Fold this protein.
Amino acid sequence: MRFLAVLALLVSSPLWARDAHYEGRYVDAHLHYVDFMQESEGMDAMFNAMDKARVEQAWVFGLPVVKKWEQSAPRRPRYFLGDEAPLYYYSATDDLLAQAIAALPQERRRRLMPFISGINPTDLNAARHVEALIERYPGLWRGIGEVITRHDDLTALTEGETPRANHPALMKVYRVAARHGLPVLLHSNLTSLREKTPIYLEELEDALKENPKTRFILAHAGTSGGVEARQAPLETLPAIVRALLERYDNLYVDLSWSVREHYLLDDDRPREVWLTLINDHPDRFTLGTDLVGHFGSMKKILNSYRPLLNALPEEVARRVASDNAKALVPEKGAVAK
Ligand SMILES: [Zn+2]
């Protein structure tokens, strides 16, 4: 009787409740060393957080923009989306990161996969800038990004021309990335605030189509906190992501931040449509914390992926949590060629 009851429970309980807990390690494939003021708690704090959260490696990068302190602001702006001042492109972010890494002991350096992020994605010089950084720090860089294009209010607040995934300046950057085997972590929202259809999808598709040799990781699966907080979730998102993955072999999908907060889980329960999508394309997803310069919540954020990882076959969970990110970066950092 008891046996039958247990059996009945097992059969009736959903998949997510039955599987073993994911006990593996992580690669945090979305970690900003600095915040929007270009400040950081520093490498010690970052490594302490990584150790506590079982993060073996991290894709680490700065932030391409910095918040300006305008003379009209009543006080120094604290938040990047504050309306008291714009943001502007800040290329020193890569040097800040490179110098902090250079000061690390070898066993820590080995755990970091640094990405070049400090480019203005609308400047036709951006590709040259990437090559100059590769020359300046030979063997250091393992990727490019997070490149920020369509990003709700952040786009509106950033000074200058509006960036987009298929901007000619970025198309040149993608070719440099392909030549060096560097993956590109690209933030390109699928839609704008208060638009219910993916009006920016074509820009992304242009980039993917015209650069088949460049591997792209679509940050947050094309979503952002600003959009998701203000409108209903894009119901077609899983279908769009599936179609993109099937159409473009060079596309991967980052499951950090807004896609984790608004799509993957329903009250801590993974949504079936996402589980099926990930199971159908187990090599195409990565995850990360998207922390910016402050690292105290790393463990908490990664733990919130557990219901999703626990509901996937162990092998698939390990790929999403670490192996896919490891496979995407080149074995050695880029050198000038
Ligand atoms: Zn980010």
Observations:
- The pocket of zinc ion is lined by residues 30, 32, 146, 290 (CB under 6 Å).
- The longest strand covers residues 26-32.
